[in-house]
Amino acid sequence: MNDTTASQAIAYAIYRPSDGVIVQHGHCQTLAQCEHMKTAGMEVMQIDAGVDPTAVYVRNGSLYPRIALPAFDTLNVRAGEAATVTGLPNPTQAQVSGAGLADLTITDGSLTLRFSHAGAYRIDLDAGAQYQRSVSTLTVSS
Q1: By CB neighbour count within 10 A (0-12 exposed, 13-18 middle, 19+ buried), where does 105 fall?
Q2: In terms of CATH architecture, what is 76-141?
């Protein structure tokens, strides 16, 4: 696609009306062409070309910025020491990779992690469409 064609393309987002999550985005020549790309239960809308679809969600047909989740108090601890994040929305889903833990649902706004073995543990936090997903790596030294 040359620059002339790119400037004529329409930026679009396909989203789930139930929660506002954008599931697909890109460019097409007409909005009608974009409409054909959506699947059942989805909606399509035109967005500004400069919008980062991962940083917004859709509510009542308009785009809203996702809210950043709070950060851990530290990402470097010694074995047995704790890393904590507070102020999480209820509920927040947490996945901790490398620790053998089941997925966690946080309902009290706080997550404290303590590991007895050195390593790097990936922590994914997801509180829904209104919030930016958070991915952190907790490094535990011996």
Answers
A1: exposed
A2: Sandwich (2.60)
